[in-house]
Amino acid sequence: MKEQLIKLKHNEDGHIALWKFYSEKCSDNRNILLTHGTFSNRKVLRGITEYFVNNDFNCWVFEWRNHGGSSKSNEKFDFESIGHKDFQIVFNFLFEECKLEKIDCITHSGGGICLTIALITQSEYQKKINSVSMFACQAFGAAYSKKNLAQIFIGKYISKFIGQVPAQKIGGEENETYYLMKQWFNWNLKGEFKGKSGIDYKEKMKTIKIPILSIYGAGDKLIAPPIGCKRYLSAFENTSNKSLLCSIAEGFLENYNHSRILHSRNAKNEIYPFVLDWINKNNTAANKVQNDI
Questions:
Q1: Vertex 197, ends 212 and 94: CA angle to 5°?
Q2: Which pLDDT score, from 0 to 100, does residue 292 have?
Q3: To the nearest whole percent, how much of the chain has pLDDT over 70?
Q4: Which CATH number fits the domain 2-139+197-292, given the four candidates 3.40.50.2300, 3.40.50.720, 3.40.50.1820, 2.60.40.10?
Q5: For 119-143, how does the pLDDT look when each residue is reduced to its tens digit (9 = 90+)?
Q6: CA angle (68, 143, 40) in 5-degree steps
Q7: Distances (CA, A) of 17 to 10, 60, 93, 157, 272
Q8: pLDDT band at residue 288 using 50, 70 and 90 as cut-offs
């Protein structure tokens, strides 16, 4: 597998890292954009990237500002900053400079939240995406029990006091600021998904008609619990969408937690193939529509 780092100008002082992973066998018209979530970077996507390159896809891995190979900055940013600006920079590069006609998207956790915001606020990109696969993604359904509500409430105020959420506390790679995380805390504590300007993303999720596969694990108890992921997927109101609960009761090898559902040997063997089938199915459907036109 070959790799190429592309530095996309973000402002006068910095750049966003977009990594292209590919092989000689990869087809020009098979492209996937992959995005990590909070506390992580491209490393969490390494396994699934290799899997799809081996299945002849070009994989474009986008690292958020202040994460991985992207520039460090003192500028405050949150989920909306990434959804509004960072995704726009990446989309413009892929569709305007690289002239890609269509892509598929794979996200983990907060990456799916940012993609949702991007597709709501920049709806012109929806026609460019064949399918989306969201691993462990939810924004407003984690506080489904008194225990979870208490944990999120306490987590919010501890991180407010110290100014950040240390990655080492949850086994991550990148620290996140309280400024970013307070959106996630507030959305889940209030059961809503509203932007700083008052825009109700939850209400507007139904405007996204791209087929979405939501993948979540029974062992993910707090960040993206099954009930939260189900509520998030339901908000799109699209009968083409599918959900995949990865648990022993459903015939999987384990009750996957928030990280192992994407980054583990078991995930490679039994979850990645579902994503490949989902992408192939929706690429076939898109090509049929195009040929009919």
A1: 45
A2: 47
A3: 96
A4: 3.40.50.1820
A5: 999 999 999 999 999 999 999 999 9
A6: 10
A7: 10, 10, 12, 32, 25
A8: low
